[in-house]
Amino acid sequence: MTTDIMHTLVVGAGFSGYQIALQAANHGSVCGTRRSVDSLVDLRHAGLAACVLDAENTEQDELTIAADESLRAQCAKATHLIICSGPDRAAPFNDPVHDFFSSGAVELPALRWLGYLSTIGVYGNHLGGWVDESTACQSTQVRSMMRLQAESCWGVLASKWQVPMVSLRLSGIYGPGRNAIKDALAGRARMLIKPEQVFNRIHVADLARATVAAARLRYSGILNITDDMPAAPQDVVRYAHYLAQIPAPPAVNFADATLSDMARSFYSENKRVSNALSKQALDFEYQYPSYKEGLDAVWRQMSELTR
Question: What are the percentages of helix, strand and coil residues in the chain, rounded to 5?
Answer without folding.
Answer: 45, 20, 35
